[in-house]
Automatic annotation (TrEMBL):
Name this protein carries in UniProt: Iron complex transport system substrate-binding protein
One biological process term in Gene Ontology: iron coordination entity transport
Ranges where the record places region Disordered: 22-56
Annotated keywords: Signal, Transport
Cellular location(s): Cell membrane
Topology class, membrane: Lipid-anchor
Entry-linked InterPro entries: ABC_transptr_periplasmic_BD (IPR002491), Bact_iron-sidero_bind (IPR051313)
Species this chain originates from: Salimicrobium halophilum
Signal peptide: 1-20
Main location: membrane
Entry keyword annotation includes Signal: yes
GO cellular component: outer membrane-bounded periplasmic space; plasma membrane
Similarity-based family: Belongs to the bacterial solute-binding protein 8 family.
Domain Fe/B12 periplasmic-binding: 64-315
């Protein structure tokens, strides 16, 4: 179980930098193998300061990016050209069309990464083989959660030479989320509480305010209320595992259920679950967990639209 929790921590976002399959899916730029002059040789370079204060040379305009973490959506939102991504990004439905033809890679398959001829690699501080990756291309890693979820997008904007574009997106998103939050509070009441849960394999989890699954939007931007029991157990660590039997103790007036339909959901049929007021009142909003795992720019946009639809009946 300890080993699995470690895996979940990385993925959930998260970012599972060292796991994933190694299927061949082609390349985003119509040919994964470098042709002619290497992109890393043809790009103008500039200095970027990492989170550790180290200054490294990165392409001024990277053309072939490999992401080994949960930041694929940030890169895509900034029109970065991805040629390789981790398995969890690859299976995210939010990115399906944008990642068509992009290779699925792992940090321990250095040969495949070399074949993709990247000019920039992005990963987590926990990504394996970082020293070897640095020999392939400039490699930048981030500690998950060290920056705020919106600050992270701006930082990736800096890395890609698109800081102003990233900051504009953040400003627009915050304004939209906060305005939506006011509308929601007006509709459901200032004191109403919201719980975010997720089932994964045989476990059930509740979440704090900074572990993706829309939590940053609901609690940080919208200012919606977290039930006291959730606050007590999940706020500091980010998430907390519970048994379905005690879910009523954590359930708010509204429940956002990040649901893995391919794992056990039999607890939904129990009297304990059915008797929760939020369930009885039809205030459970089910979301596809694969679309809720991350807190990158594209996933956040999806999550915000989900909340507009479920809480307010609004849709694009």
């Amino acid at each position: 179980m300890k080993k699995w929790i470690t895996l979940f921590l990385l993925v959930a976002l998260v970012a599972l930098s060292a796991c994933g399959t190694d299927e061949s899916n082609g390349s985003a730029s119509e040919g994964g193998e470098g042709e002619g002059e290497s992109s890393s040789e043809s790009s103008e370079m500039r200095t970027y300061e990492t989170e550790n204060g180290e200054e490294i040379e990165v392409p001024a305009n990277p053309e072939r990016i490999v992401v080994l973490s949960s930041y694929a959506g940030n890169v895509l939102k900034l029109d970065g050209n991805l040629v390789g991504v981790d398995s969890w990004s690859k299976m995210n439905p939010n990115f399906e069309s944008e990642l068509e033809g992009v290779e699925e890679v792992t940090a321990d398959n250095l040969e495949k990464i070399i074949e993709l001829d990247p000019d920039l690699i992005v990963g987590l501080a926990s990504t394996e083989n970082v020293d070897q990756l640095k020999e392939i291309a400039p490699t930048v890693t981030y500690t998950y959660g060290q920056l705020g979820y919106l600050e992270q997008h701006v930082e990736i904007g800096k890395l890609l030479g698109k800081e102003e574009e990233a900051q504009q997106w953040v400003d627009d998103f915050k304004a939209d989320a906060q305005e939506t939050g006011e509308k929601i509070k007006e509709k459901i009441g200032e004191d109403a509480t919201v719980t975010v849960i997720e089932n994964f394999e045989k476990e059930l989890y509740v979440f704090g305010d900074n572990w993706a699954r829309g939590t940053e939007i609901l609690y940080q931007e919208m200012g919606l209320n977290m039930p006291e029991k959730v606050k007590e157990m999940a706020l500091e660590p980010g998430f907390y595992a519970i048994s379905p039997e005690v879910l009523p103790e954590y359930a708010g007036d509204y429940i956002v259920f990040s649901k893995n339909s391919d794992t056990d959901t039999s607890f939904e049929q129990t009297e304990t679950y059915q008797s929760i007021p939020a369930v009885e009142n039809g205030n459970v909003f089910e979301a596809d967990a694969k679309k809720f795992y991350f807190n990158d720019a594209i996933s956040l946009e999806y999550q915000l639209e989900f909340f507009k639809e479920k809480f307010l009946g609004e849709s694009e």
